[in-house]
């Protein structure tokens, strides 16, 4: 992202502030009709993408060259046309009314500028996928075999992508233009009102004195901060700049320190109340309130962080590492005195759980965060700080908005050509109608997509292609979407392309590849839990209270057993046979077979007791 100066900076600053004000206005008085709301949203985001993001590594970083101003202007024209001619467009009869030469030209410009913005901001993978989708729509009928597409003329392709709500302006961009934008603005307010710093103080007070304190602070603070940020890489930089040097100082290796931060930060996207942007899109796809997604995500998220916490504890005990010195830990009195800082988060959770819309809940939490800031002169939000909060929150929209627009091109190709049905048949044929094999294939698809795409784009594409196949195999829709979402999220710690691990390695100074493999090992349970909740609704709190309770207990046992097995340490160094036994218990206890689950729980309790007595 460019560091702008002078008049260009103020232009970009107030453009983003105006974008934020527009979205707050629609949150207060009601969103506009979907196509119009999404066009206005993209009219802000797409041109500004060329202002903030340079074309190449060698392009100017402190000024905007003439060709980027030209691209910004061209990117604005299709959206302005759609806004001005909004009524004419929405009353068109699709595939009946003629697509005018002006509309074809503007639609082509929009597709090209989105592809270029995607290349700059998101990366080549999604750019190539979106471009291939356009080519498939146009030349798919020439392909041989099973993937032969239907014949579609160029003007109908542009119509589908530009003049309807089925392509670029489909649901993903709609979620970006409403929920995601409001939560990003809320994130800006929470940071400027002191909530982010309080999370760090709270983490120090909770875990600072424990064995391996800094690593546990990383886990706790990243979980807390991630619950309001929803971005793995942003989470790494927000908390890792503090926790990684502390971990290294106390004796953890740079590789392990970076891996702990990467794993803890990646979990932020699955941690309620503010999950990643894809979670809001999931709620829209499923047609359910966001609170249902929050409830379903809670137990897997808690189990994930519990597993990471136990792995860190085992490593710290094995290395004989201690906690932070007393002078670095805030007093309990101070932490309790500042407990009111959590008021915006509490209000947000209560409102969502009581059935208010996420936008109204976020808006109320934003107002509460401003009120909270008034109680501390260090964070008191006057006009200048409010503008900075609007700017800082809004500048994070580019990755989401551009990724959603590009993913909309892919979704448009799926809906126009029917390739989604062909892929469902393809997955069925490869999996031989064996549900477990289909899950493995979908897992690999989501991970591969997530390696090159942001979580949001990876989830949208993978869910469009794979979820119908899973539902046809008898899996529940919510679980199927959650399955794809989880692997799209945790591709950030899955080698060879582990973006969160790479971000952490830039702070720790370790090799990115080594950090990636260590992060994968630390986040191992994230690879297993999705299979568990596909077969047992209790892990998503979607069963009766007894099954839910058994699932929670089984999950906790699994997390402890696997953490000890992978670290090879529990009270003492473990033999290969004991590690194998614990690993087997950790996996088998997740199977939805009651007698087997009870046997595994009792066996783990026996092993735990045996080692505890032996150590004593």
Low-confidence residue ranges: none
Beta-strand percentage?
Answer: under 5%
Which oligomerization state do the chains in this entry correspond to? single chain
Radius of gyration: 25 Å
User: Biggest β-sheet, characterized?
Assistant: 2 strands, antiparallel
Mean pLDDT: 87
Strand arrangement across the biggest beta sheet: 1-2
- The SS-based structural class is mainly alpha
Distinct helical segment count: 29
Number of strands: 2
Helical percentage: over 70%
Straight-line N-to-C gap: 56 Å
Given the C-alpha coordinates, what overall shape results?
globular
Overall description:
This protein has helices spanning 6-29, 34-52, 66-84, 86-90, 101-121, 124-139, 154-162, 171-192, 195-207, 213-229, 232-250, 254-266, 277-286, 290-319, 332-337, 343-353, 358-373, 383-394, 397-417, 419-431, 435-452, 455-472, 477-490, 499-508, 512-522, 525-535, 545-567, 576-588, 594-615; strands spanning 569-570, 572-573. The protein is mainly α. The chain has a two-stranded antiparallel ribbon with strand order 1-2. Helix 8 (171-192) packs parallel to helix 17 (358-373).
């Amino acid at each position: 992202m460019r560091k702008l100066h002078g008049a260009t900076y103020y232009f970009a600053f107030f453009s983003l502030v105006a974008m934020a004000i527009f979205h707050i206005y629609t949150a207060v008085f009601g969103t506009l009709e979907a196509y119009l709301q999404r066009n206005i949203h993209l009219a802000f985001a797409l041109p500004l993408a060329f202002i903030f993001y340079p074309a190449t590594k060698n392009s100017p970083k402190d000024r905007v060259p003439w060709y980027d101003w030209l691209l910004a202007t061209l990117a604005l024209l299709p959206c302005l046309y759609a806004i001005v001619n909004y009524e004419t467009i929405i009353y068109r009869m699709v595939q009946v009314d003629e697509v005018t030469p002006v509309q074809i030209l503007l639609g082509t410009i929009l597709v090209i500028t989105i592809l270029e913005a995607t290349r700059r901001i998101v990366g080549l993978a999604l750019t190539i996928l979106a471009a291939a989708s356009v080519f498939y729509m146009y030349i798919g009928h020439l392909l041989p075999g099973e993937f032969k597409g239907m014949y579609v003329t160029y003007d109908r392709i542009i119509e589908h992508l530009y003049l309807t709500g089925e392509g670029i302006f489909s649901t993903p961009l709609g979620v970006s233009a409403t929920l995601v934008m409001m939560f990003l603005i809320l994130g800006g307010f929470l940071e400027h009102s002191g909530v982010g710093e309080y999370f760090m103080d709270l983490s120090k007070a909770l875990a600072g004195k424990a064995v391996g304190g800094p690593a546990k602070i990383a886990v706790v603070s990243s979980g807390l901060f991630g619950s309001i940020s929803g971005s793995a890489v942003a989470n790494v930089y927000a908390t890792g700049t503090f926790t990684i040097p502390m971990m290294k100082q106390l004796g953890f290796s740079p590789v392990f320190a970076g891996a702990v931060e990467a794993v803890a930060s990646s979990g932020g996207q699955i941690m309620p109340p503010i999950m990643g942007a894809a979670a809001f899109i999931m709620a829209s796809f499923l047609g359910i309130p966001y609170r249902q997604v929050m409830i379903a995500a809670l137990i897997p998220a808690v189990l994930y962080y519990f597993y990471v916490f136990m792995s860190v504890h085992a490593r710290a005990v094995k290395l004989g590492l201690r906690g932070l010195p007393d002078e670095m830990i805030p007093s309990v009195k101070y932490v309790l005195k500042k407990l009111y800082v959590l008021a915006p988060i509490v209000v947000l959770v209560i409102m969502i759980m009581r059935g208010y819309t996420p936008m109204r809940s976020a808006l109320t939490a934003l107002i509460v965060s401003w009120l909270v800031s008034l109680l501390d002169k260090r964070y008191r939000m006057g006009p200048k700080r409010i503008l900075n909060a609007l700017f800082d929150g809004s500048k994070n929209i580019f990755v989401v908005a551009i990724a959603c627009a590009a993913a909309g091109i892919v979704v448009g190709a799926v809906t126009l050509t029917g390739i989604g049905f062909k892929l469902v048949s393809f997955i069925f044929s490869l999996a031989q109608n064996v549900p477990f094999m289909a899950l493995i294939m979908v897992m690999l698809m989501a991970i591969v997509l997530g390696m090159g795409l942001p979580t949001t784009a990876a989830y949208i594409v993978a869910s469009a292609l794979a979820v119908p196949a899973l539902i046809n195999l008898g899996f529940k829709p919510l679980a199927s979407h959650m399955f794809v979402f989880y692997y799209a999220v945790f591709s950030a710690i899955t080698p060879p392309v582990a973006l969160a691990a790479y971000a952490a390695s830039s702070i720790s100074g370790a090799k990115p590849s080594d950090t990636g493999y260590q992060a994968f090992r630390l986040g191992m349970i994230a690879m297993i839990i999705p299979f568990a909740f596909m077969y047992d609704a209790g892990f998503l709190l979607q069963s009766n209270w007894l099954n839910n309770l058994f699932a929670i207990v089984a999950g906790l046992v699994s997390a402890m057993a696997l953490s000890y097995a992978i670290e090879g340490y529990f009270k003492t160094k473990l033999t290969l046979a004991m590690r194998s036994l614990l690993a087997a218990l950790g996996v088998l206890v997740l199977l939805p077979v009651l007698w087997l689950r009870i046997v595994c729980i009792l066996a783990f309790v026996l092993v735990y007791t045996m080692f505890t007595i032996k150590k004593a």
